[in-house]
């Protein structure tokens, strides 16, 4: 990669890794639905303003059904489930479990568009399953119904991301990346608007909570999407996908430094196995 692309890659990983930290701060106070509603609404507004500035806005009137469905699969469902996972687990474990997204993408692609599963992908999937089992069963948190539920929600969120990735590949192949990003966030905002209206807080949150939501929306969503699509355009989709390997590392670092989250050998071993499984799947040539 060029130096500018490496800078984009690490900044993107830091932003997406930090999103789990901001969710952990804001969601227990504001509630999951309000936090996620504000995230997509502010992010959609920011990207719409950017699109208007560069005179590049999505044709939402013509493709509103597709944008709503992509927003549901790529934002609404996974954002809410990840927030539940973060609240019940912690930021680092939720981020590590969500790193299984490429594994679920491979499964969905095999079932939906008949993309072949070769031996390398199968080994990667089996290794990923083992890594998840070690991470959840040998985590620094006491194994409880809420921890198990949080783990399931994080994996279902990754599965939703996988469906969204294949759907976007089929539906928005010739779309401009910024159009797709803005369109899906507008669709997500429409879907989550009722939740925003019924879950408005009765008192004004603290400055720390407000800053966490603003950072989550503007930095970890709007700016992150722009960086991601710039990286795809400059370095290619395969190299851009390597951000998956860096996100859990930043999330674990931020969780330890800012939230004093515990780290044990189960977390590290599970992380290594999951990332190795992702490498096997994404490095496969078929």
The assigned structural class equals: mainly alpha
Per DSSP E runs of 2 or more residues, the count of β-strands stands at 0
Q: Quickly count the helices.
A: 12
Shape: globular
Main β-sheet description? none
Distance between the termini: 23 Å
Strand content: under 5%
Average of pLDDT: 91
Helical residues, percent? over 70%
Describe the fold and architecture:
With 286 residues, the protein is mainly α. It has one domain (3-282). It contains twelve helices and no strands. It has helices spanning 3-30, 32-53, 60-88, 91-98, 101-112, 119-137, 145-171, 177-198, 207-235, 237-240, 243-259, 265-282. α3 runs antiparallel to α7. The longest helix is centred in the N-terminal third of the chain and has 29 residues, at 60-88. The protein is globular and about 45 Å long.
Compact description:
The chain has helices at 3-30, 32-53, 60-88, 91-98, 101-112, 119-137, 145-171, 177-198, 207-235, 237-240, 243-259, 265-282.
